[in-house]
Amino acid sequence: MTDAPLPPAGGSSPPPQGGASFVGDDPATVLPTEAYTEWFTRVVAWLVDYIPILCLLGIGWGVLLGTQETDCLTEVSGYGLSESCARGASTVGLLTIGVTSILVLTYVIWNYGHRQGTTGSSVGKSILRFKVVSEKTGEPIGFAMSIVRQLAHIIDAVICYIGFLFPLWDAKRQTIADKVIGTVCLPL
Which of 3, 116, 119, 149 is the most exposed place for a label (fewest CB within 10 A)? Predict the structure, then answer.
């Protein structure tokens, strides 16, 4: 006989004990593949998350390219007159690209670090109604681990982006970064 508690009336299983996984290996708590967020939904959430980034960078690069300055140099020599011109970035353009780059970094840290780390959902994930949680606890993973998870996506990209396709065939619909960090995506 085991010391495991009996399931409460109503047929649901008790919460995981000790090191048991929230959605993991214990047959009583394993979720079917359909319970995890679909790959297409995750891709659309990523696109939504990157709209503000593309807008900010577009503004920065637009100002940088639109305010270029042309400097011409005319040389008089024994062979005649020659002129050469070069285009370069203006001070306004460089300042704009610098400010928009800082704004992008701030948004990424807020969206993927603070917001996703504390609530489980970035802006895109909130709109598409799912969250990233710890596989062990079912809770959001916190600021630092959320940033580490985003950096772990480098692994997904290094192998010809195949890591991002893992949710198409994985039972828990995890990317390689999710497996490394121990996270899953669940609908709200």
Answer: 3
